[in-house]
Amino acid sequence: MNRDCIQNLNEIKLLLTRLSDQEYAKPLEVLSNASLGQHVRHIIELYQALIHGIESGVINYDNRKRDISIESQVLVAKDSIDALILKIDAISENKAIELKGNFSISDSDSATHIQSTLFRELAYNLEHSIHHQALLKIGLKDLGLQHLIHENFGVAAATIRFKSKPQQASS
């Protein structure tokens, strides 16, 4: 699982090496005026919340820092990814962990506690990252920069595997 998360983060980092700060931070109407950088920051900060949760035993994705420099400066985002890769690479064992979050849109005091595992949360972060990469792909196309990524950027591994299998005709 570590390797897959690291590979995914490196794919995002490669994209970042090809973007200017202006392209990265530009609000895009096609993304409801979000920028590519806001989507990358979201990916990074969920992984950061996971890493913080390893130390405390509780992951709370709601309490992200929301660091504007990650969404506006390519270099800060790349450095953040490098730091995450080191920490993810150091994860050696699956362990029980508690997920805490407020899933209510109306009750600000509602907290849910769910028992999870570290590897389950790594899998969640990976899938969540791929989802946001699909949105990044839409933004890149809008900017005319789709050539910066490969066709499987933002596509789930299961979908890639399914598409690569020869399809049998149904009778």
Mean pLDDT: 94
Strand percentage: 5-15%
Radius of gyration: 17 Å
The number of distinct helices, counting runs of at least 4 residues, comes to 7
E-strand count: 3
Helicity range: 55-70%
Along the chain, the helix and strand elements come as HHHEHHEEHH
Shape, principal axes of CA atoms: globular
What structural category characterises the helix and strand content?
mainly alpha
Spatially, the strands of the biggest sheet line up as 1-2-3
The largest pleated sheet is described as: 3 strands, mixed
User: Could you list the spans in which at least 5 consecutive residues all have pLDDT below 50?
Assistant: none
Q: Distance between the terminal alpha carbons, to the nearest Å?
A: 38 Å
3D architecture notes:
The protein has 171 residues and is mainly alpha-helical. It is built from 7 helices and 3 strands; from the N terminus they run αααβααββαα. The chain has helices spanning 2-16, 21-25, 36-56, 68-72, 74-89, 118-142, 157-164, and strands at residues 58-59, 96-101, 112-117. Strands 1-2-3 form a 3-stranded mixed sheet. The longest helix has 25 residues, at 118-142. It starts with a helix and ends in a 7-residue tail after the last helix. The model has no long low-confidence stretch (mean pLDDT 94).
Topology:
Layout: H1 2-16, H2 21-25, H3 36-56, E1 58-59, H4 68-72, H5 74-89, E2 96-101, E3 112-117, H6 118-142, H7 157-164
Parallel strand pairs: 1-2
Antiparallel strand pairs: 2-3
Care to give the gist of this entry?
The chain has 171 residues and is mainly α. It is 56% helix and 8% strand.
